[in-house]
Amino acid sequence: MLPASIQITGELLSAAEVQDICESLKEDSVRLLSVRGCQLSDRDFGRVCRSVADSRSLAQLNLNLGVVSSISRTRHLADALKTNRSLQTLFLHGSPLLDAGLVTLNSALSTHPALVCLDLGDCMLGDEALGLICGMLPPDGAKSGLRELTLSANPGISSKGWARLSIAVAHSSQLRVLNLDYNPLGDQIAGMLAVAVASSRTLEVLDLEGTGLTNQSAQVFLDMVENYPTSLRVLVLAENDISPELQQQICDLLSEGEEDDDREATPLQSCPASSKALQPIRDKYLPIRDKYLPIRDKYQPPVWLPHSNSAPQMVLLTSGLGESLLAETEM
């Protein structure tokens, strides 16, 4: 039997429901587990984590929107990750981790052999946590690291912290998607990020929606994509004080770059249906309305960005990357 998915959102989970989840995990019959925004007792959370540790089939775990609500739960999760060897994608968006939580998780996250996608958006992180995250973006020639990283809405990170991240991104040998939306970056930090993007040979998606940018930043990015070779294919600049004309110019140049790459690329061999399927979609931070509103209530229809296909250059949602990631997605 093929591994299935368990997706529950915003429910109060009973002990019996938790028992069913645990049994399914132990039977290796679950590939995607999402208890996004659910309420469960500390005891039951510990039971789920122990089952996650033993699972050999679980590839995506979604604990978004406050499920990891205390340092004790963070410890349970860290212990599970130290034993688990199958997890590829971990969503913790909207969890009050603080720097102390990242310190607790760091060893397990950094040494996990399969983890490639990590969402730490709206986790109340600061510079200490960001320093640890930079260690998950090893430079060329080092161990493998994250391919997709989300750090949306962590306003406690200073300009020094963002500068450190920019350096790590410039030298990362793996990172392909970076979501920094709804952080108060401003033009100075955006300039650092532009240098990082120009230096990176892998970064394809950069989300800077609602980050306090102006035409000054847009002009820097325009100069970069116009005059220098870059892997960048998607740059999100919505909800900034940037003229539509500049945004369109950048979009057009990125589109031209992708068309050139398509012409130069060798024809792809046919691949299994599972690798063509849509990839997981992260929770998008919503700054004005209820941030925990389901994605589909904000965007109709949702914008998908499968890595293997061409897609619009100015988008509002980005997908997970890599053929090894899951086909299922929770909305």
Task: Present the secondary structure layout.
Blueprint: E1 4-7, H1 15-26, E2 30-34, H2 42-54, E3 60-62, H3 71-83, E4 89-91, H4 98-111, E5 117-119, H5 127-134, E6 148-150, H6 159-171, E7 177-179, H7 186-199, E8 205-207, H8 215-227, E9 234-236, H9 244-264, H10 273-276, H11 295-298
Parallel strand pairs: 1-2, 2-3, 3-4, 4-5, 5-6, 6-7, 7-8, 8-9
Helix pairs in contact: 1-2, 2-3, 3-4, 4-5, 5-6, 6-7, 7-8, 8-9
Characterization of this structure:
The protein is α/β, with parallel strands linked by helices. Helices cover 39% and strands 9% of the residues. It has helices at residues 15-26, 42-54, 71-83, 98-111, 127-134, 159-171, 186-199, 215-227, 244-264, 273-276, 295-298, and strands at residues 4-7, 30-34, 60-62, 89-91, 117-119, 148-150, 177-179, 205-207, 234-236. It has a nine-stranded parallel sheet with strand order 1-2-3-4-5-6-7-8-9. Strand 3 (60-62), helix 3 and strand 4 (89-91) form a beta-alpha-beta unit.
Quick overview of this protein structure:
With 331 residues, the chain is of the alpha/beta class. It is 39% helix and 9% strand.
